[in-house]
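hey m, so remember when u said the tokens were messed up on ur end? i reran from scratch. heres the input so u can diff it against urs
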Amino acid sequence: MNLIEELSERAKNDEYFQELYEKIELLAAHNFFHAQEIKLSEKELLDVLRFSDILSRSKNSDAQNKAYKVISLLVGRYKDESIFRTFANSVLTKLGNFPALKFLEADGGIVDNQSLELVFEKYTKEIFQEIPGSKLTFTDSQYEIFESLRNSNHYSFSGPTSLGKSFILNSFIRYLITVQKVNENIIILVPTRALINQTLLQLKKNFHLLKIIEYFLILQFRNRLSSKVIDIYLFLLLKGWLLIFLILQILKLATCLLMRLKKL
């Protein structure tokens, strides 16, 4: 364990930090329900922000979540204070959370006296973690998953609701079509019928340049961005439908092989 990880582990388990963390949770709840206001002293605010800054430098997901939670709990009450904006900008940059950074900047949270190290890190991430075909930027976690997908033939991952799994997969599909120009079919499996329409709407929004043909539980996209034809199939996760599709693919492959053999 290196020094940063050791410090973040000590910070995460520190009794004083846990006390401050509970206090800012109450502060956020009281602020949301417009109840009697709970105030942090200047020392308490500075200390909890310092804890958050230490935790944001860790590679441990629990420590990173704690760092982000501190900022999200304080933003409603302290977003206009320079000390909060300075630390929030640093923490969100370290976490690579650019959507939250843009929200902070749009709400008047731009920090002028940023360190050269922080500015360099921010712009480096904005360049290397830019989503292909857009001006948006992946968070650190999203970028790590996207790169693993891009560099692997087989890859599996899971994550919480807020991770942006659908966003990552849609970005990867767009990368396959526009950058890699693959000539292979794509299958999307969804676990419930309720997600069929949701996934369909996302695909229509993200791939509006593609011609869409719908039938049963299958969606077919004809790629007009290149001369190649790519089909994206959307299935409800039912064994029967998947089995039928696999059989059809095997028959298609067998037919192609037979036609090649006849030409020999």
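this time it looks ok to me. The longest helix spans residues 239-263. if urs says something different then somethings off w ur setup not the seq
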